[in-house]
Design goal:
single chain, alpha/beta, Rossmann fold, about 15% strand, globular, binds NADP nicotinamide-adenine-dinucleotide phosphate
Length: about 250
């Protein structure tokens, strides 16, 4: 498949890119600030001699003009985009009454508006092709999460956007689904997850020793959702949380 993955330079996105290349997909991924991390992903893919081809482009998903340009470049590089994975995302946590306009806007613009801009830019060619797969990386924050008014609103919005696009474009051969990761070890959780929340996960996640998710478990879910077998799964929000589905 020909895939565009946003935020593929680190964490969950990088793993989706590496595992996707191993499975033979041709991929363009984006980074925004850390080109070295993007290069590392390419190096890793070269080292394992993955079957698929992989390129990267710089993109700030908050910029709708840049999104349109990068979608055009990725389309040229790949010869069309069949799969879009909206993975780029950030947190800027704090209690709602102390949240600055900037922290609110940064998170909504990146996680929600960015996802919308990408979908809007990619959908026309999927409609023309009569085929498309969109996977949005949401979060358990969508159920409501103390200290994450911005993040929770962005991910709940993403789920609504997912269902709406599924309804608008399902008849054109396009499925749109959201995946909800539980706790996965990445820069995002290392940098911003308070110890009490880590303890909460460890104590209550109904998995052996309350373990976190493995990145390969999430990339396998994405792989399933883009496979022919998943053609009838549309507009869904699928939790990969180990069974711990309500935040503190
Ligand atoms: P991460 O390690 O912090 O990686 C974030 C990625 O997003 C990076 O590739 C980063 O690019 C990119 N990015 C950030 N701001 C961007 C922008 N404005 N435009 C374009 N790209 C941007 O995070 P992660 O943990 O892998 O999270 C990936 C997704 O999973 C996010 O949507 C997050 O909300 C979701 N999620 C994660 C967890 C978890 O446990 N880790 C749980 C639930 C949901 P640079 O490297 O260039 O900065």
């Amino acid at each position: 498949m020909k895939m565009l993955v946003t935020g593929g330079s680190r964490g969950i996105g990088a793993n989706i890119v590496v595992d996707g290349a191993k499975r033979g997909h041709d991929i363009v991924f984006t980074y925004v600030s850390d080109e070295n991390a993007a290069r590392d992903v390419i190096r890793l893919i070269d080292d394992i001699q993955a079957e698929g081809t992989v390129d990267y482009l710089r993109l700030d998903v908050r910029d709708s003009t840049a999104v349109a340009e990068v979608v055009e470049q990725a389309t040229d590089l790949l010869g069309g985009i069949e799969v879009l994975v909206n993975n780029a995302g950030i947190t800027r946590d704090g209690p709602a009454i102390a949240m600055t306009d900037e922290d609110w806007r940064d998170v909504i613009d990146t996680n929600l508006s960015g996802t919308f801009y990408l979908c809007r830019a990619v959908l026309p060619q999927m409609i023309d092709a009569g085929f498309g797969r969109i996977v949005n990386v949401s979060s358990l924050g969508h159920v409501g999460s103390s200290g994450q008014a911005n993040y929770s609103a962005s991910k709940a919005g993403m789920n609504g956007l997912t269902r709406t696009l599924a309804k608008e474009y399902g008849r054109k051969g396009i499925t749109v689904n959201a995946v909800v990761p539980g706790f996965f070890e990445t820069d995002m959780t290392r940098e911003s997850l308070p110890q009490e929340l880590r303890d909460f996960w460890g104590n209550y996640c109904p998995m052996p020793e309350g373990r976190p998710g493995r990145l390969s478990e999430l990339s396998a879910l994405v792989e399933y959702l883009i496979s022919p077998e998943a053609a009838f799964i549309n507009g869904q929000t699928i939790h990969a949380t180990g069974g711990l589905d309500w935040g503190p």
